[in-house]
Amino acid sequence: MARHEPWSAERASGIIAEHTHLEGATLPILHALQETFGYVDGGAVPLIADALNLSRAEIHGCITFYHDFRSHPAGRHEVKLCRAEACQAMGSEKLHREILGRLGCGWHETTADGSATVEPVYCLGLCANGPAALIDGEPVAHLTADALDEALAETKRETRQ
Amino acid sequence: MSVTLYVPRDAVALGLGANKVARALFAGAERRGLDVTIVRTGSRGLFWLEPMVEVATPEGRIAYGPVKVSDVDALLDAGLATGGDHALRLGDPETIPFLARQQRLTFHRCGVIDPVSVEDYRAHGGYRGLEAALRLDAEGIVAAVRDSGLRGRGGAGFPAGIKWNTVMLAKADQKYVVCNADEGDSGTFADRMMMEGDPFNLIEGMTIAAVATGATRGYIYLRSEYPQAFATLKEAIANGVGAGVLGQNILGSGKDFHLEVRLGAGAYICGEETSLLESLEGKRGIVRAKPPIPALKGFLGQPTLVNNVMTFTAVPWILEHGAKAYADYGMGRSLGTLPIQLAGNVKHGGLIELAFGVTLRDVIQEYGGGTRSGRPVRAVQVGGPLGAYFPVDLLDTPLDYEAMAAKKGLVGHGGIVVFDDTVDMARQARFAFEFCATESCGKCTPCRIGATRGVETMDKVIAGIRPEANLKLVEDLCEVMTDGSLCAMGGLTPMPVMSAITHFPEDFRRAGDLPAAAE
After folding, report:
1. Are B266 and A67 inside 8 Å of each other by CB?
2. Residues B129 and B270 in one domain
3. Is B224's Cβ below 8 Å from some Cβ in A?
4. Dihedral of the CA atoms B109, B110, B115, B119 (nearest 10)?
5. A87 and A154 both lie in a single domain
6. Is residue A139 part of a domain?
7. Residues 137-176 of B with CB under 8 A from A
8. Does residue B347 sit in the same domain as residue B438?
């Protein structure tokens, strides 16, 4: 994952301005802000509301409705673990207990060293090859706790390079 | 002479190391002085064989799989570039029984072509459907879709021709075509595979719909859990505009169609069409009351055709080959083919496109080869998290909208999730409520409150606290949710719950510990 930029109202205004011509621009703006800063800062709410002529409540409501948007920075790597039925059929519940135990955090939480944030997802479309995960947007099939450790170590190395 | 190798870039193949395999093949070929071109395709949907590498030979393509990085050197030494023999050699992929026995009308190009190349798409029959459509008037296109018997593949099974006709007849300055690509059901991946492997099939289907209904703008609403599909669609759309098959004056017809792909944000409910439209407008994905129907007042209040990926992608074939040719497949009122997705605890999982009417047992045993764990099959969930759990003695039910409904189940989006005999059906019933509580939009009370009460009550059942009385409560709650919910989320959550209680009563009447997942 590319390093995120620190929050900047000026930069955010620029990103928002690039999207205001779109029909239904709110989600594209929120995605672009999260991609740039790693989260949607509270300071973005009035900026988006002004640009789209919507109320702050509408923007806040939108951010909080969707599971994807976060209002605080996450860990360096984002680990999405599939909790849906097809992965359950391959023992995902037990696997997730082991993974969360190793990482020492719970769902929606970040590890103590800030290396990873774990989010639950309901289906990644890798249902014939479960348990499945998405690590920084890269799919992992036939996931094991060791494979996750390895993948995180690998992405750490790539980040350092 | 340059050798062409095909390595999938489908998410499953990537999840099993396809990028590393592609890099190793390239490097290994270079070391041996072999001139290779690597084409990144989609997947053919034989997922236990991924990454499946193919090579073009004078006798046709030869496949190898599943290929690991550690196999690459041995494969190259065995003469992979000329189709040489090796333990992983599968021969002509089209003769692999899993694929050879299918009826691939919609998926025939998937895994074969370069997904983002208009040229490759056209070389494999692409855009013949649109060309045929452009020779007809709008009524003629809609008649072809109607006469084919095509029903909405998203789950509801509504006749596509009727929807298309309503939008066509609506009067408005701006109409829209919207593709529901929010494929959230667990056990389904046909949309993802299509968008990653043959996105122009979707683009062509949507373009035909635009021509038929008079829409000039379109959106693909894609779930954010599919970043690979997002990248592929964006690339395909840009190439389509460049090649004159999208944008202004498509194929020189004088008609315009501007298409954009939009990302959802992790809300399952946005697969419900009115919630999807709210989300596309930039709002919370709250379900709308119907009427008005989206065909008359949809995106931004304008007439909008909303169809699933699999509905749109059936259309080019129908226009090219004729409505009757499509309707010749299938049974009863379920005509054409169904892309079945076989998943969960299964040995040979993947995409199986067959005419409606095949039995669940045939799919699981003949194609799937039983469970991956090797244990006996105990339960099968068909049609996603809102679909019923079937026991083994119901597996002779044919996949057909009416036949499934008669057994209190649904076809849904065609996903089949297999569970072995270690499954605890009380836990699965609890999960159905938990999922509904997590994903409910919150607009109607039966769904918003009912799901949470359902989790609590199931916890009592699982803990052995007055199981008979609490199961009675669950049944009563399910009745209220079925009758009183605004959309299928709350309305169908009772289906997995009640089917589990009905078919697996023994799992609900034994005391146990509270599940660890009850956080």
Report:
1. yes
2. yes
3. yes
4. 0
5. yes
6. yes
7. none
8. no
Question: Among B61, B338, B14, B174, which Cα is nearest to A132's?
Answer: B14
Chain B residues lying within 8 Å of A84, measured CB to CB: 186-187, 385, 435
Residues A120 and A57 placed together within one structural domain of the fold? no
Range of the domain at B504: 425-508
Q: Which of B420, B451, B472 is the last residue of a domain?
A: B420
Answer whether A128 sits within 8 Å of B12, measured CB to CB. Answer: yes
Which CATH number characterizes residue B271's domain? 3.40.50.11540
Work out the minimum CA distance from A114 to partner chain B, whole angstroms: 23
Q: Residue A123, by phi and psi: left (phi above 0), alpha (psi -120 to 50) or beta?
A: left
Q: A125 and A96 in one domain? A: yes
Question: How would DSSP label each residue in B1-60?
Answer: --EEEEEE-SHHHHHTTHHHHHHHHHHHHHHTT--EEEEEE---SBGGGPSPEEEEETTE
Domains identified in chain B, total number: 4
Q: Is B271 on the interface with A (CB under 8 A)?
A: no
Q: A154 with A102, same domain? A: yes
Q: Which amino acid is at B321?
A: H
Eight-state DSSP code of residue B337: E
B420 touches chain A (CB under 8 A): yes
> Domain holding A110: CATH number?
3.40.30.10
Residue the block writes with tokens 């409540």? A57
Q: Are residues A61 and A116 in the same domain?
A: no
Number of folded domains that form chain A: 2
Q: Residue A153 falls within a domain, yes or no?
A: yes
**Interface test mutation site (partner B, options A127, A140, A142, A158, max chain B beta carbons within 10 A):** A127
Q: Put residue A39 in one of left, alpha, beta given phi > 0 → left and psi -120 to 50 → alpha.
A: beta
A131 to chain B: closest CA residue: B344
Task: Indicate whether A36 and A106 sit together in one domain.
Answer: no
Q: Tokens for B273?
A: 């069409």
Residue pair B370/B377 in contact (Cβ under 8 Å)? The answer is yes
Q: What are phi and psi of B356, to 5 degrees?
A: -55, 145
For chain B, 519 residues long, give each residue's pLDDT as a single digit of tens: 799 999 999 999 999 999 999 999 999 999 999 999 999 999 999 999 999 999 999 999 999 999 999 999 999 999 999 999 999 999 999 999 999 999 999 999 999 999 999 999 999 999 999 999 999 999 999 999 999 999 999 888 999 999 999 999 999 999 999 999 999 999 999 999 999 999 999 999 999 999 999 999 999 999 999 999 999 999 999 999 999 999 999 999 999 999 999 999 999 999 999 999 999 999 999 999 999 999 999 999 999 999 999 999 999 999 999 999 999 999 999 999 999 999 999 999 999 999 999 999 999 999 999 999 999 999 999 999 999 999 999 999 999 999 999 999 999 999 999 999 999 999 999 999 999 999 999 999 999 999 999 999 999 999 999 999 999 999 999 999 999 999 999 999 999 999 999 999 999 987 544 444 444
CATH assignment at residue B456: 1.20.1440.230
- Full residue range of the structural domain in which residue A33 is found: 9-65
Asked whether residue A17 is domain-assigned, the answer is yes
> In B, residues 8-67, which contact A (CB 8 Å cutoff)?
11-12, 14-16, 47-48, 50
Cross-chain residue pair A126–B11, CB shorter than 8 Å: yes
Residue B62 lies in a domain: yes
Q: Which of B21, B195, B224 to mutate to test the interface with A (most CBs of A within 10 A)?
A: B224
